[in-house]
Amino acid sequence: MLLSESVYLGIDIGKNKHVAGFLSKTLLERHGRFEACATLLFENSREGFRRLVERLREMAPLEHYFILLERTGHYHRPLMQYLQDLDLPV
């Protein structure tokens, strides 16, 4: 668990599924390059969003995250609202 550092989360938005990529100083040191850092494929649904947040909590406290979403049409809006309702910076 990454307890004392910022974690950056980039999310590639799709119509049915999204892919989240995790990045932090420790993850980069551990894996050597950002392409090898952890990713998560999740559904574009409330259940998928819950799964994402569960994974976030496993890796670090929620207040350590900075999240960047791809703005693709309107498909990013439900996820953005869900994350903002949890007071996550998007």
Give structural notes.
This is Transposase IS110-like N-terminal domain-containing protein. One of its GO terms (biological process) is DNA transposition. InterPro entries: Transp_IS110-like_N (IPR002525). One of its GO terms (molecular function) is DNA binding. It contains three helices and four strands. The chain has 90 residues and is an alpha+beta fold. It has a four-stranded mixed sheet with strand order 3-2-1-4. A hairpin with a 4-residue loop joins β1 and β2. The relative contact order is 0.24.
What brief labels describe this structure?
globular, Nucleotidyltransferase, domain 5, 90 residues, 3 helices, 26% strand, alpha+beta, 33% helix, 4-stranded mixed beta sheet
Report helical residue fraction. Answer: 25-40%
Q: Which of globular, elongated, flat, extended, rod-shaped describes the shape?
A: globular
- The low-confidence parts are none
Order of helices and strands: EEHEHEH
Radius of gyration equals 13 Å
- Mean pLDDT across residues: 93
Strand order of the largest sheet: 3-2-1-4
Domain Transposase IS110-like N-terminal: 9-90
GO molecular function, one term: transposase activity
InterPro entries: Transp_IS110-like_N
Pfam families: DEDD_Tnp_IS110
